[in-house]
Amino acid sequence: MACSFGRFGYFSAFDSAIRIVRGAMFFEYFPQVCTQCVDAFCARACPTGAFQRKGNIVDYNKLRCILCRQCLLACPWGFIYPDIDLQYMIKCDLCGGDPECVRVCFNDAIEYVEVADVSNTKYRGNVARAKGERK
Amino acid sequence: MIGKILRVNLSDRTTKVEEIDEVAFKNFLLGRGIGDYILYNEVKPEIDPFAPENKVVVALGPFAGTAIPGGARVAMVSKSPLTGSITSTNAGGHFGMELALAGYHVIVIEGESKEPLALFVRNEGAVFLDASELWGKSTSESDELLRNMTDSRCRTLVIGPAGEFRSRIAGVFADGHRAAGRGGVGGVLGKKGLKGIAALGKTHIVPENKDVKESISKVYECLRKSEGVKRFRNFGTTGNVRTINNAGSFPTRNCRDSYMDGFESINGTEVNRQYLFRVGSCAQCPVSCNRVCKVEYEGKTYIVSGPEYETLWAFGGATGVSDLRYVILAHHLANEYGFDGISLGATVACVMDLFEDGILRNLPFESPFGDGEAMLKLIHLAGRNEGIGSLIKEGSYRLAEFYGHPEYSMSVKKQEFPAYDPRGIKGMGIGYATSTRGACHLRGFNTSQEVYSATDPAYRLKYSDEKMDFLITNQNMRAVEDSLGICAFVGGYYGLDLFSEIIYNLWGIFVPSEELYKCGERVWNLETLYNRKAGFGRKDDTLPNRIFELPASTGPSRGEAYDRNEFERLLSVYYRKRGWDEEGNILPSTLERLGLQ
């Protein structure tokens, strides 16, 4: 909800760039969001260059898009899909570095961190765990 | 323009779409308010609740389907088979958001169908489905089957087997586990032959004014800072068991006492320590108060959405069961069979009470207070409508009356008490007595002023007139929040000014904050007016004898009973402050002030 509102100014569950898939088990949810691949399948497939890598994200340019849906077929995870009016494609662009979804998530399920920080945190975590085991 | 009304006639299987009248919105808002308005205009107060002329209004608030926290509750209004009065009940879950995005804010269910039906609501309109496959299935199974029949992305509103055999304490369940329990609306839907509604929404809700973003940020800031929200996230409502026991207001063993020895074993900390599996939340809401527990019983693992404070009381305190495993399982069974947890627990407690006093002898098994196995057996009987179960499903008053002792039923207007003892919190007593849908804690939650925010621990035991002011404010504010579809747990963080601001920014309709408060008062008076026409009066605004005659024997409220003279005096004060006469009828001047002639 926050996602579609922050991006387009209206509330819609279908036009959100985050989709939550319900699992087979009770209370099992899988949130799905674009991984911003470095060598992006969508960018490779796009005939007009609407998808291009810019800095940390794969950017989608609505004006260049001709709605051929090649990106939809190319994305191995199905993270790109058309909006309900079939006018353009929807893809997470991290809201330019200040994602709306992070702002509204109370349980800190979503965090916005730089890639370098992630490896750093993991590395430190591993060291801490190793130390703990030795004790 | 604000939302649309979908009229569904089950007799001839037709649907009709209407616009919501802006004048009605300004007077009654949506949700419970518009439901009351439609019921008052279209359903005669004297009819039988199970007659085909009775209607069920499913109504959302104006904030459903947006990012406004806690605004996705779905209210259901009908003439209650349990009490005979107007009843409005609401549930959380994701159904409200989905229905709003499908483009409808109100569904009016009319008529009656011989064959079981389900309704599938989409942007393109509503279609009827044959629900004979779903008939007899539990709520979670029905939810899953209905989604398989329609679309896996749907959200549903279903009734369980209890609703199908027209139990008077059956609830309606959103997402298969979020209950709109009180008042027996599930039974009315069961009689009408509507097993469930599935909704799938694809529209956008476009706010009139971009400033709504700032309003939402304000609420989020408040919620983020609040200690109360943190507590709700950690314990849900279950932490209340300790608070209310320490206030000596935990009605134990069918109100024989107001303090439970060993309440620690069913407290929120125990739930978290032993059974908590994960937490869940409703649509649009960051509070996530829902506990999801994992229980093992007889070699099977159950994943249970719950328990809440009320069910911890109903299956723990009221029945005297202190084994948490049985309490959580009983909660699970109540949900699966489609009962209202509070009423079912209180009725089982009533059976146990009758058994203890030797009135009820023909049970196939013993059922003293505190016996978890017996409690589960009784719930299974009720869920299958067998043996004494066919009486349990009628609610405690009718059960106790059948055995010739209606005084054993702890109920007001035949609806069972919830988990706050009026002997320990005096304001709640008048709240229960004057509630428009029978005993109910959400109509006038005086506990907040008398326990949570009171500095003097003995304040709760005083019979002071100012409590009636609190009560009236609480009742009116609750009516406003219910009519806006806002959850009780986050409603307090908004305040009337912010409500008014958000309604303007979202829908472009300006309702000043003082007018909003008046809407709440109008809703309350309209419900009372309906009840007066249905034959209720001062004689029904009372409490069971046990509250007046039996003092609590242990705990912080030891020796406290409700003084009958003080009760009558406070009731008169309440009527006067409401602008009603001594008999509880609304004075013409009050009706004129509220525009209800």
Structural account:
The complex is a heterodimer of chains A (135) and B (597). A two-stranded antiparallel sheet of chain A has the order 1-2. Chain A has 135 residues and is of the alpha+beta class. Chain A is globular and about 55 Å long. Chain A has five helices and six strands. Chain B folds into three domains: 4-199, Aldehyde Ferredoxin Oxidoreductase,  A, domain 1, CATH 3.60.9; 229-416, Aldehyde Ferredoxin Oxidoreductase Protein, subunit A, domain 2 (Orthogonal Bundle), CATH 1.10.569.10; 426-433 and 454-594, Aldehyde Ferredoxin Oxidoreductase Protein, subunit A, domain 3, CATH 1.10.599.10. Chain B is built from 25 helices and 17 strands. In chain B, the strands form four sheets. A six-stranded mixed sheet of chain B has the order 2-1-6-3-4-5, sandwiched between helices. In chain B, strands 8-7-12-9-10-11 form a six-stranded mixed sheet. In chain B, strands 13-14-15 form a three-stranded antiparallel sheet. Chain B is globular and about 60 Å long. The model of chain B has no long low-confidence stretch (mean pLDDT 92).
* Rg value of chain A: 17 Å
Overall mean pLDDT of chain B stands at 92
What is the makeup of the main sheet of chain A? Answer: 2 strands, antiparallel
Number of strands of chain B: 17
Strand content of the residues of chain B, in percent?
Answer: 5-15%
